[in-house]
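Anyone have tokens for Helix-turn-helix transcriptional regulator? Sequence:
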Amino acid sequence: MTERASTNETIISETLGRGPDRSANIGDWQFARWRQFIGSYELPALVDPVFVVHVGGKPDTRLWQAEEWSSSRSIPGCATIVPAGQPTGWRIDGELDVVTVSVPLASLTCGDAIDRFRHTRFAFADPLGIALTRQILSELYAPEGIDRTAYINVLLDALKAHTLRGPALASHAPFPTADFSAHRIHNIMNAVLAHPEADHRLESMAADAGLTPSHFCRVFKKATGISPHQYVMKARLERAREMLGESELSIAAIADSIGFTSQSHFTRAFRQFSGQTPSGWRAATLQ
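Reply: yep, here.
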């Protein structure tokens, strides 16, 4: 008889058919990196809530919701919360690279933290969580050493505190304009996702973050893994895929509505992003 899986990591390993690429403990919390899996997966209910950080891979990960695949997609730079006791379905188009942080139920002692992990929240922006996760990963692949271990422990504790508090709460705190402001980056990312068709100029986004354009580019890429221009382009093309499948607008009308200066430019960008022309994608989606 197979022994019952007793941890999130065991459940995930059995579902994927492989263990984590790297892992570390934060007391009774577990930090694990998973990558190089493709396809659709039905993940059984987990014993503890999990905070998932999308750190790399292709930007086309969907969640099974309301008897269909979600129209929104997770991309590198996004985070997801999966509560305990809830099976989930995932569709991965290409390589995925994620980190899971298992949050023991016993650590959820205050109302805000309990509410935060009670419901699924898919593909939301969390620049600070991404930045901490990336730094931890880089240290886990570095040579062993006393200083390294101490540094990783500090980073893990910071990620643990941030995971419990959440980016939404941190966004209400004032930050000096001249300093890196995670909540401003978070707000900029949300503004792009909400209105990808808008004119998101680098200078304007940098000004909103209180940074010079060059510094903003460095901070944004460190937080998300891609440049501001790439983030805007991905948001526009994701919206285009939704419109192609859900509306009867012409290709030219869709290109214009999401901020492309010409249909030819849109077609080239869409083909590079999706591997198909807009018309080909629409035909395949409507089959």
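Confidence is low (pLDDT under 50) at residues 1-5, 169-180.
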